[in-house]
Specification:
By secondary structure, the chain is α/β, with parallel strands linked by helices. It has five helices and eleven strands; from the N terminus they run βαββαβαββββαβββα.
Length: about 220
């Protein structure tokens, strides 16, 4: 699987993602500039990544302007053809703004930027320690949308305690139903607020991020 990492003005996790994919996961990576449109080097077996950061300075709303970039138009078409797309943090916000994923990311409940390690889990899986760094990471959707996400098994990660307990104490930003990441109905578009690319190196004494890529089956 080949990866394309989109670089927007204001992206600041694009090189982190490139390093994690290339050096820790041994993947081929192509950096993609936001003003370009060409994705001809990628097949639907590959994956396009929207990294974290502050695309276009987070003006209007996080991800609102990036959604209209030339590259995003190609990414939307790529996803609609079945290609895999992963959005992390600001990338998750862009996916929601573009309509590739439902819901919205609101300002953290405490109205402060949060940067720390948290724990997340997939279903009944183990608790994984993954860093977060965001000011607007509180996932929100109406009850009908949330019920559909639950029914279709589209919630891929929830915030939890180190012991795997899903409760209010483990929720760092007030996200509804402790949701840390979701996927689309076709299971080819994934969005999450925590940063798995910051937890793939043994030098950081944490490689739980590798398990995230395994869970998403994009490794």
């Amino acid at each position: 699987m080949k990866f394309g990492v989109v670089v927007f003005p204001g992206s600041n996790c694009d090189r982190d993602m490139q390093d994690a994919l290339q050096n820790d996961l041994n993947k081929e990576v192509i950096m993609l500039w936001h003003k370009d449109k060409d994705l001809s080097a990628f097949t639907t077996n590959d994956c396009i990544v929207l990294p974290g950061g502050f695309s276009y300075g987070d003006y209007l709303r996080c991800g609102a302007i990036a959604r209209f970039s030339p590259m995003m138009q190609s990414v939307i078409e790529f996803a609609n053809r079945g290609g895999k797309v992963l959005g992390v943090c600001n990338g998750f916000q862009i996916l929601c703004e573009s309509g590739l994923l439902p819901g919205v990311l609101l300002q953290n409940a405490n109205q402060q930027f949060i940067c720390k390690n948290v724990f997340i889990k997939n279903g009944e899986g183990e608790a994984l320690k993954i860093p977060i760094a965001h000011g607007e990471g509180r996932f929100h959707a109406d009850e009908s949308t949330l019920d559909q996400l639950e029914k279709n098994d589209q919630v891929i990660f929830r915030y939890c305690t180190q012991l795997g307990e899903i409760n209010e104490i483990a929720n760092p930003n007030g996200a509804v139903r402790n949701i840390a990441g979701i996927r689309n109905h076709n299971n080819n578009v994934y969005g999450m607020m925590p940063h798995p690319e910051r937890a793939t190196s043994s030098l950081l004494n944490n490689i739980d991020g590798k398990k995230v890529f395994e869970i998403l089956n994009i490794n």
